[in-house]
């Protein structure tokens, strides 16, 4: 290990020590998260200024930062499936009403798909306003390689039809899905948990003593899983610091400037769609500014980690303990939102790509005959998009191949992919939370007292999302 790397790691440890000092002094969760974000940006920028984005020193430093950043994401992924399983079973046992369960599912999925259609329309609008086009973009070796990779994935995308996608939700092997072994494992675990919960309710009258034992076991498992969630979420500021430092240190500012039009259009579309989410929340009678403030920490994590699925535990905790959404609804919206109707990855991104690429094959993208099929394909294709890195790529492949557009041209944006993906993931999570909030309000289940509570005044406790 070289002296520069040792100095880099020593500096990183000092900054992590400062974050720990904040935690010991009981700084609020929001303050600690945004402090970590700021320190990560400054540290990453300093590394790039000193060594350059492709230097060996940054690469080696990044490998050690991965222990904190990627390690934190893996811990969150570790608890996703157990959290979904026990929380949904517990919610069904408490609900005891299949009709309410169906209404919750329909409202959640309907909101996710409807907002994805709106997101796609906004993406198209931004592409037109910014005059985006793939014509004239140059390809380096990396872009050519990316294009070849996308063409290699084309067969997988073309093989996905709506019936096949729906079939993939069925958990033929729930133990495999508990490992997250398939793209649709999250929904498959939700479905399996629903079956377990309904089956348990079915024996409540026939074998009450067994039901009582099972109900107690689920409550114990739920308490343990939620304690694990609490322990892992304590590490959030440290993970955000390491993840953000990595992104900033390795980003190519020259490539970002070359494609600044697409970057600007993308973030304008993302911000506008976030405004739509706030408008939906306002329409339910809740204060949209308070809503935005309460969800900022989880959006910050989603932004830095680029993992909708990894954000599920924090998503659920935020909805339950900051927004007043019942745990069952929160788990449904967070789980479905990581795979269905991702506003950023499956809505805005494929729509902008399609509009950019269409002129290269002589198609006018701003005609009704092109736009209506495009919106339909995006909305339907948003079902089953994986909530991990690469989900946007798969969504783009489905849309571009369905519209008979060349998929290789999507590889021209590889250099700015991480920067765009950060914003897309944050919007995905915002859409999932919005769906949960809307469903909770329509069902009359929101605890308004929790929503109105000032989180900055909260003290640390075992049940809060802000443990110390």
From TrEMBL:
<feature type="transmembrane region" description="Helical">
    <location>
        <begin position="105"/>
        <end position="127"/>
    </location>
</feature>
<dbReference type="InterPro" id="IPR036458">
    <property type="entry name" value="Na:dicarbo_symporter_sf"/>
</dbReference>
<feature type="transmembrane region" description="Helical">
    <location>
        <begin position="185"/>
        <end position="204"/>
    </location>
</feature>
<comment type="similarity">
    <text>Belongs to the dicarboxylate/amino acid:cation symporter (DAACS) (TC 2.A.23) family.</text>
</comment>
<feature type="transmembrane region" description="Helical">
    <location>
        <begin position="6"/>
        <end position="21"/>
    </location>
</feature>
<dbReference type="Pfam" id="PF00375">
    <property type="entry name" value="SDF"/>
</dbReference>
<keyword id="KW-1133">Transmembrane helix</keyword>
<feature type="transmembrane region" description="Helical">
    <location>
        <begin position="259"/>
        <end position="283"/>
    </location>
</feature>
<feature type="transmembrane region" description="Helical">
    <location>
        <begin position="370"/>
        <end position="388"/>
    </location>
</feature>
<feature type="transmembrane region" description="Helical">
    <location>
        <begin position="71"/>
        <end position="93"/>
    </location>
</feature>
<keyword id="KW-0813">Transport</keyword>
<dbReference type="GO" id="GO:0015293">
    <property type="term" value="F:symporter activity"/>
</dbReference>
<keyword id="KW-0472">Membrane</keyword>
<protein>
    <submittedName>
        <fullName>L-cystine transporter</fullName>
    </submittedName>
</protein>
<keyword id="KW-0812">Transmembrane</keyword>
<dbReference type="GO" id="GO:0015184">
    <property type="term" value="F:L-cystine transmembrane transporter activity"/>
</dbReference>
<dbReference type="GO" id="GO:0005886">
    <property type="term" value="C:plasma membrane"/>
</dbReference>
<feature type="transmembrane region" description="Helical">
    <location>
        <begin position="33"/>
        <end position="51"/>
    </location>
</feature>
<feature type="transmembrane region" description="Helical">
    <location>
        <begin position="224"/>
        <end position="247"/>
    </location>
</feature>
<feature type="transmembrane region" description="Helical">
    <location>
        <begin position="394"/>
        <end position="414"/>
    </location>
</feature>
<dbReference type="InterPro" id="IPR001991">
    <property type="entry name" value="Na-dicarboxylate_symporter"/>
</dbReference>
